[in-house]
Design a protein that fits this description.
The chain crosses the membrane at residues 7-24, 313-329, 341-359, 365-390, 674-702, 714-736, 748-770, 825-849. It is an enzyme of class 2 (transferase). The protein contains 30 helices and 17 strands. It is an alpha/beta fold and 880 residues long. It folds into four domains: 2-21 and 308-399; 33-285, TIM Barrel (Alpha-Beta Barrel), CATH 3.20.20; 417-631, Spore Coat Polysaccharide Biosynthesis Protein SpsA, Chain A, CATH 3.90.550; 683-849, no CATH class. Helix 2 (59-69) links the parallel strand 1 (37-41) and strand 2. The longest helix has 32 residues, at 368-399. The radius of gyration is 37 Å and the shape is elongated.
Length: 880
């Protein structure tokens, strides 16, 4: 039945996916394209050509373009007579095309005089197919010339030709300047609703209304439409969405009205013009009926489909979804139907979004720069896809497991059957009173055979270590104290020293930190697990007893709980837990056979756990509190601790990369490889997010300094970080409420504390990639809380980044096109990316405000063991 569900659920979601593609791409009937239209705006530039740089097409290329339009239009409209463009009338005549001949008017008077002189030379040739003359194109709109200057240019040409003369401007310019109307033989309107942000469905009616408005204002002047159209790609302008389907539908609807009303018009335009991207932005490139390679961009008579290739894209999204789902379902026999359905839904949604983003990006004209950006985005997109899938997989396994694979019943074992345990307690410069509390807890253990080895590692002050030595002596022969100076290898060195001095009868080594007070049942409950010879590690969670001291510590406690209630439990299902340096128990024979603790590694505990798995042994995680320690007192110390963990994770992955990736023979399973790569993936995402943020700030500066040249990133690309941020936020809140049994306040506090560590983790990951050694940062206990100024200094980098993002967002919104959706979305991205840095500042300040009570967050219950399910076999509840 479960295998049948594995087949049926993906098929149902795949059917839903294809249905969604079909619904969004249902054919829509539109009026057919006329056999022959009135005219095209004609710019014969091709890829790499640019009239502003005087890079013009050859006469042969212009002739080929006119040949393509022959029989499809009555006329073309040109914009300049510079260079080979002066030959357009002669070449058009050979293809039975009339010409509205244009002369370009710009801001330079000398260039304008030269252009008009060339215009008169062309007119003097007497081409009979030149039916109109256009002096200037939107010169008033661009403010290249004053109205009186343009009138002088118009009159200069009108005096020397009998052909009707005009200039071309949008409708509102004509209404604003009636004096201009007196000096033209006809009015040439530009009706381009996209630039005015008019939604597509209203655009044709809007254009016709503006035409009628000008006609009403000037009833005695003939009116032609010099440009009318819609872009097939580019930036969304308020309600105006550029798309191939909208371009098709707009033009076909307009042509139906124009033909019935007898308008004289020139469609904007014949061919796409990539060079316009520098002057008109992305949308300026895509107004052509034909693309830059002279292929028709859409169907002229058949029903319009939003994405003509939707069937292929739908199939591709399903194939990608199936491949991803196959990987996720590979080891999911304990996942319920709801969990599998959730994974299928998320997988197909992600694959569909990925296909759409790639499709959308590749529809633009690629340059070396856009190609490079595309490659970088592809790599980043793969990383985002993997991260989202990993997050979804953890979400599903945390909520929808039908049963646990590895339940852990409590075993009632006679004292004589229990193994001898050697407890190792490394210490460095720890407060004596705190260590005495730890030793009292160990002395109270309800266990018949154990010893305690206290290794004081390099503490210089006798007043710190001698009281501990004396206290151990009073506790009896079970407690042995070693003061070692010098001792290399940090904590791992101390643990290896203890291993060499361990009682020969000890079968199990247990390790706790110097601040941990253990429960009396710790060893009695967990040591029986070693009766299974495959078990090499038994791990209890880290827990803390000072969460009620302040709001800051309550936040930290909530943040820690997420990993031990969610991540470790799901990892335990595949024998892939991360061993911790406290509350852990290791089979001595395995520890010694593997060479002890790795003194090269700053996180020797997790590194040892990986070597244990690679040797083919198993570890067991028991999610119940058996000991509680102390949390860092300040945010700075909280960050030091997490920096060390993240740095160590990178070094472990690098050191053991061949085994983890399967390039070297080991006994690591696929599930273990998966968790050791994916389990730390979110930390790597933080580091790449830091690089993204720096690039985003640089891009935003460029947008502010060069608004006409630098546009915001593509909307589909800019939305990715927002979607990822939202997905992770929702996941955190849901899982904390359901799995950690946290209140809404605690869930928010945990999320805030986790976000506050993002920059620290990012720096640690990047440092771990490029360095090999890190000084050991001891996490201080019972340190004096930070002062306010110190708290701000501790997060000065984060505070600067908050300011940078806020200033960048403000600067971007000062652009003239700030009303456009992609600019606003990019501003939201900048603000969203500032949130983790703002969280760092806030949490650091909270750590300084020690008077803020923990009740603001709320007390968290202990990770307690479940009740006995039967009188004979009590069971430790696995947390669900």
């Amino acid at each position: 039945m479960n295998r049948l569900a594995d087949l049926i659920i993906p098929l149902l979601i795949a059917a839903l996916t294809v249905s969604a593609w079909w619904i969004l791409n249902r054919p829509k009937e539109e009026p057919p394209w006329p056999t022959r239209i009135q005219g095209f705006a004609f710019s014969p530039m091709r890829s790499g050509q640019n009239p502003t740089l005087r890079r013009y097409p050859t006469l042969e290329e212009i002739d080929a373009d006119l040949a393509l339009l022959e029989g499809r239009a009555h006329a073309v409209r040109s914009y300049s007579v510079d260079g080979p463009l002066a030959e357009i009338p002669r070449l058009a005549a050979q293809h039975r095309l009339n010409v509205t001949l244009g002369a370009w008017i710009g801001p330079e008077r000398k260039a304008n005089d030269s252009e008009l002189a060339r215009l008169l030379q062309v007119l003097a040739r007497g081409y009979r197919n030149v039916v109109r003359v256009m002096v200037g194109n939107e010169a008033i709109l661009r403010r290249d010339v004053r109205v009186d200057e343009l009138i002088n240019y118009l009159e200069r040409i009108r005096r020397l030709t009998q052909i009707p003369v005009s200039t071309a401007e949008p409708w509102h310019v004509w209404l604003k300047h009636p004096e201009l109307v007196e000096h033209v033989d006809f009015i040439t309107l530009h009706l381009l609703p996209y630039w005015e942000g008019i939604p597509f469905e209203q655009a044709v009616d809007y254009a016709i209304n503006r035409y009628n408005q000008v006609k009403t204002a000037y009833p005695d002047k003939p009116i032609i439409i010099g440009e009318v159209g819609w872009p097939s790609n580019g930036r969304r302008n308020r309600g105006a969405e550029p798309s191939l389907a909208n371009q098709t539908r707009f033009l076909r609807r307009f042509l139906a009205i124009a033909e019935s009303e007898g308008y004289v018009y020139y469609l904007m335009e014949a061919f796409d013009q990539p060079w316009k991207v520098k002057t008109e932005g992305a949308a300026g490139t895509y107004w052509g009926v034909y693309d830059v390679n002279r292929r028709p961009k859409f169907v002229f008579t058949e029903p319009v489909v939003r994405i003509p290739q939707w069937r292929e894209l739908a199939g591709l999204s399903v194939v990608i979804g199936v491949l991803l789902l196959t990987l996720l379902y590979r080891d999911s026999e304990t996942l319920s139907k709801s969990g599998k359905g959730f994974l299928a839904l998320i997988t197909y949604a992600i694959s569909t979004a990925a296909v759409l983003i790639v499709y959308d990006y590749t529809r633009q004209y690629m340059t070396p720069a856009t190609t490079l950006v595309g490659v970088l985005l592809l790599f980043g997109g793969v990383g985002v896809l993997v991260l989202l899938m990993a997050e979804a997989h953890e979400w599903a396994e945390a909520l929808w497991l039908r049963r646990w694979r590895r339940p852990f019943p409590l075993r009632l074992v006679p004292d004589e059957a229990l193994p001898f345990v050697s407890i190792h307690l490394p210490a460095y410069n720890e407060p004596p009173e705190m260590l005495k509390e730890t030793l009292d807890g160990l002395a109270s253990l309800d266990y018949p055979a154990f010893e305690v080895l206290v290794i004081d590692n390099n503490t210089q002050d006798p007043a710190v270590w001698e009281p501990v030595r004396d206290y151990c002596a009073r506790l009896g022969p079970r407690f042995r104290f070693f003061h070692v100076v010098p001792l290399s290898g940090y904590k791992a060195g101390a643990l290896n020293f203890a291993l060499r001095h361990t009682d020969p009868d000890a079968k199990v080594v247990a390790v706790i930190d110097a601040d941990y007070i253990v429960r009396p049942q710790w060893l009695r409950h967990l040591a029986p697990a070693f009766a299974d010879p495959k078990i090499a590690i038994v791990q209890a969670p880290q827990d803390y007893r000072d969460g009620g001291q302040s709001a800051f510590k309550a936040m930290c406690l909530a943040e820690y709980r997420g990993f031990f209630h969610i991540g470790m439990i799901t990892r335990n299902e595949r024998n892939a837990i991360i061993q911790h340096g406290t509350m852990t128990m290791i089979r001595r024979q395995v520890l010694e056979s593997l060479g002890g603790w790795a003194e090269w590694c700053i996180t020797e505990d997790a590194e040892l756990g990986l070597r244990v798995f690679a040797a083919g042994y198993q570890a067991l995680y028991i999610p119940c509190t058996y000991g509680q320690g102390l949390m860092p007192d300040t945010f700075a110390d909280f960050c030091k601790q997490r920096y060390r963990w993240a740095y160590g994770a990178v070094r472990i992955l690098i050191q053991h990369r061949h085994a983890i990736l399967g390039l070297r023979k080991s006994r690591l399973t696929l599930g273990q490889r998966y968790h050791f790569i994916v389990g730390w993936l979110s930390w790597f995402a933080d580091s790449f997010n830091l690089l993204f943020n720096l690039l985003a700030l640089g891009w935003s500066v460029a947008m502010a300094l060069a608004p006409k040249t630098v546009s915001p990133p593509y909307l589909s690309v800019a939305l990715v970080p927002l979607v990822l941020f939202g997905f992770k936020l929702i996941k955190t809140l849901v899982l904390y409420r359901r799995r950690v049994t946290a209140s809404l306040r605690q869930s928010i506090a945990a999320g805030l504390a986790g976000l506050a560590l993002s920059h620290t983790i990012a720096r640690a990951i990047l440092a771990g990639l490029f360095t090999q050694r890190l000084g050991f940062f001891r996490t201080p206990k019972l340190a004096q809380a930070s002062a306010l100024i110190r708290a701000l200094m501790d997060v000065r980098e984060e505070a600067l980044l908050v300011c940078a993002f806020m200033l960048a967002a403000y600067a971007v919104m000062q652009r003239e096109d700030a009303f456009m959706l992609d600019v606003q979305v990019w501003t939201l991205v900048l603000l969203a990316q500032s949130i983790p840095y703002l969280a760092s500042v806030l949490v650091s300040l909270i750590s300084a405000w020690t008077h803020l009570p923990a009740v603001l967050v709320g007390p968290m219950s202990e990770m307690a063991c479940g009740e006995a399910t039967t009188a004979k076999q009590p069971v430790l509840r696995q947390g669900l």
